[in-house]
Amino acid sequence: MSTMQQTILVFKTNIKYKKDIAKVSSVLRHDAINNWNIDRTDIDCVLRIVTHSLSTNDIIQLITNEGYHCSELNN
Amino acid sequence: MRTRDENKELLVRQKALEILVKEGFDGFSMQKLAKAANVSPATLYIYYKDKDDLIVKIGIEEGLKMKKAALKDFDPEMHFEEGLRIQWKNRSEFWLNNRLSYELFELLRQSSYKEKIFESIFIGFKEKMKSFVMNAVKNGELKAMPVEVYWSMAFAPLNNLIRFHIEGRSLGNMPFTFSEDLMWQTFDLVIKALKP
Fold first, then answer.
1. Residue B35: which residues within 8 A CB-CB, separation 6 or more?
2. A72 with A60: CB under 8 angstroms?
3. Most buried by CB count within 10 Å: which residue of A13, B83, B134, B153?
4. ipTM over 0.90 threshold
5. Alpha helices in B98-139, H assignment, sequence order
6. Between B1, B30, B42, which is nearest A74 by CB?
7. DSSP states of A20-35
8. Which of B84, B28, B85, B98 shows the shortest CA–CA distance to B56?
């Protein structure tokens, strides 16, 4: 377990199908991302990221660069 | 930094249990839960990875509660009749007071979540029950028999009374209410059958 502070970030996306997940998984295989998953059963296809250094905007950029919608799921 | 709020988490768990039992796994959604617990979906995703993760965690949580209740005042070294009596008392009390947990387990039993959940609940539990039975056989208080036969005799009758009660109906749709008298009457017959 890392001693660095981990943050959980959650996003609304349109990453719905397995092929979409395959596509984004290459950019999410990132040194600063400890863990990620997408809840495809959810209406918002929620992307959940556990990271110790990336920001919300970093993630949004990573995902939108792949051609998907990604916005912060607000509290 | 988001912090976890204990009360909020308890409410989320309670509402999740209610929705799961009422709507089943297919009818359950994080959105419905968020609305019912008055939290944002984002908060739920802080607590749980996804819907599957939530179902598994809630299932384990309820299972551990059941395990704790079942083992209260119980010791595998006890005389057989005394130990089994405590088991019946503990289990009946738990199921009668935790109806939602009962119904959740009925759902889980038939689901693909079953193995993941029951595996982690039964750690430590199975061993205790096993050594209780082995001691009883060794001490001449219980006939030796296959574990399936033992379980079908020792617990299935109780579970059936509980099921009748929760469904409110017994055979031929007759109204049914559980009572301790009925339970101990059943228990005495079970003990008679199991003793060498």
1. none
2. yes
3. A13
4. no
5. 99-109, 114-122, 125-138
6. B42
7. HHHHHHHHH--TTEEE
8. B28
**Hey, how many other C-beta atoms are within 10 angstroms of the C-beta on B19?**
18
pLDDT digits (tens, 9 = 90+) for A4-56: 688 999 999 999 999 999 999 999 999 999 999 999 989 999 999 999 999 99
Distance from CA of A10 to the nearest CA of B (A): 6
Instruction: From B51, B19, B20, select the one nearest B36 (Cα to Cα).
Output: B19
Beta bridge partners of A47: A11, A38
* Helix ranges restricted to H, A1-75: 18-28, 56-65
**Per the structure block, which two tokens stand in for B29?**
């959604």
Q: Residue B21, class by beta-carbon neighbours within 10 Å (0-12 exposed, 13-18 middle, 19+ buried)?
A: middle
Tokens of B45: 């995703």
Residues 6+ apart with CB under 8 A from B137: B143, B144
End-to-end Cα spacing for chain A? 27
Q: What is the reported pTM?
A: 0.86
**Which residue in the block uniquely carries the two structure tokens 């738990």?**
B94
> Which residue in A has a C-alpha nearest to residue B50's C-alpha?
A39
| CB contact residues (below 8 A), chain A span 35-74, against chain B | 37-39, 41-44, 46, 48, 73-74
Residues in B 26-85 with any Cβ partner in A closer than 8 A: 29-31, 40-43, 45-46, 49-52
**pLDDT per residue as tens digits for the range B123-160:** 889 999 999 999 999 999 999 999 999 999 999 999 99
